[in-house]
Amino acid sequence: MGQASGFLWAYAFHEGGAEPLTDQTFEIPPGDPKAWVWTHFPLSDQRARLYLENQHDIPAPARDLILRTDQRVQIQFSGQWAFGVLPDLERDLDGRPVGAGRLLFAFDGRRLITARRQALRVVDEVRREVDRGALIASPADAVVRLIERYVDVSEQRLHDAAEALDRVEDRMLGDHGEVEGLKLGPTRRGLSRDHREYLGLRSALHRACVPREDHRVALLPQHLPRLAQEAEDLDREAASLQERARLLHEELDTQITSATNRSMRALTVMSSLLIPPTLIVGAFGMNLSGIPFAGSHSGFVAACVLCLAVVGGAYWVLRRMRIMP
């Protein structure tokens, strides 16, 4: 990390190739009109915030947007600068996504500034590609690469969600026993959260295709229609999976309700068959004079036969009423 500026990392690009920078070499290389610098800042570091506050060559709207860590996905233009907020995925120390994140950016023809508050997955993966020798010709191409990488990661997440729904559907439609253990809640929550992200990216890209104000930002506008189409495809696929998950949830509820009804029906039949002999046994158990068979040695057998006869009669009545199969 740079000590004076507080950046996490920085690269100077010559003809697409990248060279890491330090505070001592934290300048655009002279003599090469196509050279440019990418600097990434952690907004949780006060040094980074102070450095950005003092960058008066950055348009004030762009500087304010980055420092207040706006959460709304957007792309704006001001003169030769483009700036805004891109969706990303927060990650833990092992690289696993833990929720939606935000990457703030601003660039002109020679500089790209990105910033974040939490550790993010997509921008880190693009940085690793740069370390492995990926060529990025301009700041606009870097922003396009960030959006494309986010689309790739999102497509994989949607594929994983579709496979999870496939497993649930196979379990529901197959003869695999109980379905109460199937869990659709986490998948539905993830799809709902991702759908909101894709909808925000789609809207931001469509608005950027027809900005309200004129600008002189080169390269990026020519990629916007294609990126908007990719974001629209993500949004449409996420909406389709959301609807499928909702229908599966309704079918799951129907099957659980049906299983519960079958259990309640079995309990009702058992109760209907056992209530009459229970009453008979209770009547014979009263300590009163005049109880039938009280003085007979075969009284117990007679009571058992009576109970069986009543149960048989109740069973016949239930069959006649089509309550029992």
Structure summary:
The protein is of the alpha+beta class and 325 residues long.
* Record field, number of beta strands: 7
Distance between the termini: 76 Å
* Overall helicity: 40-55%
SSE pattern, N- to C-terminal: EEEHHEEEEHHHHH
Give the count of helical stretches: 7
Largest sheet: 7 strands, mixed
CATH architecture call of the largest domain: 2-Layer Sandwich
Class per helix and strand makeup: alpha+beta
Radius of gyration based on Cα positions: 35 Å
**Full CATH superfamily name of the largest domain:** CorA soluble domain-like
Task: Give the helix/strand layout.
Elements: E1 9-14, E2 17-20, E3 36-42, H1 46-53, H2 60-67, E4 74-78, E5 81-91, E6 97-107, E7 111-116, H3 122-131, H4 139-173, H5 185-209, H6 220-284, H7 299-320
Parallel strand pairs: 3-7
Antiparallel strand pairs: 1-2, 1-3, 4-5, 5-6, 6-7
